[in-house]
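Running co-folding for tryptophan.
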Amino acid sequence: MHTIVSGIRPTGNLHVGNYFGAVINFLKLQNEEKCYFFIADWHSLTTAPHPSDIIANDYTILAEYLACGLDPEKCTIYMQSDVHQTLELYLYLNMLAYMGELERTTTFKDKVRLQPDNVNAGLLTYPTLMAADILQHRAWGVPVGKDQEQNMEMARIYAKRFNSTYGVDFFPLPKSLASNGDSAVKIPGLDGSGKMGKSEGNALYLRDDEKTIRKKVMKAVTDAGPQEPHSEMPEVIRNLFTFLEIVSDKETNDFYRAAWDDCSIRYGDLKKQIAEDLNAFIAPIRERIEEYSSDRAYLERVATAGAERARESAEATLREIRSIVGFPPYRG
Ligand code: TRP
């Protein structure tokens, strides 16, 4: 079994695009590998959240992942800020990280542009903290999106540099696993754009109620309709069919394909169908989100058990690292 680590940003709520991308892949991995999934609340400090928002955001996103089916019996789910061992490794890695390479990171350069008044050292060393998250469990693979490729490359650089500096073969070089593995579908926006996203403003959230989902789907962009049998589908219509593929049964799919092919398709009906089937898919998740969100004691138990397991794994790694770096076991 491989050790897998991934960090979850504690911002915003999960949408259908997240579900069929990252989340579905986590659900698969938890059955196959030894997984550590954590909520990256220390990383969120780089943008100075209000103290009272931190715990709230942690529990919101934890409830949503559990509602989607992340199972604390199968994987370890924890809050980054519960594992202080990460910070010791972060320090060792910072001693091996060069200013130049940190300054060249695109995510750092983006942040400098976005928040010129708060270019803090935490932003600069974001990649070394991320490397510590991963390397503390000596992970083999990390499911991440393409936007994290540079951070992953840096994690590999620091793993390699640590190994060569100390003449050891200690850290495996963590592979990036496409966060949307084989099972994932890229979910388009309903506004004619290629991608569903929070910042695109076109997301269907797992917390949205039935009426909201219906309203959003009914507003989806369409075209004038096929002008002749077996026309090629334009992108906006293909996007609608993508939703049909993920939430509707085969019969329904065949029916609307045929209706497209013989030009009898009515977009209003198609959208109603999509809204109905999306709601059937989302409703149980939404209900579980509500259940988990109102059971703080349960969330607390999950986070506590996760913290204990994650600390145990990190501590075992740190014990060896201290000795490699030249420190004795902790005194006293
Ligand atoms: N940087 C990741 C993101 O923005 C979150 C993250 C932090 C992470 N530490 C990690 C992802 C370690 C994978 C492994 O999405």
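Result summary
The chain is about 55% helix and 5% strand.
Residues 5-7, 9, 40, 43, 130, 133-134, 142, 144, 148, 151 surround tryptophan (CB under 6 Å).
Job closed.
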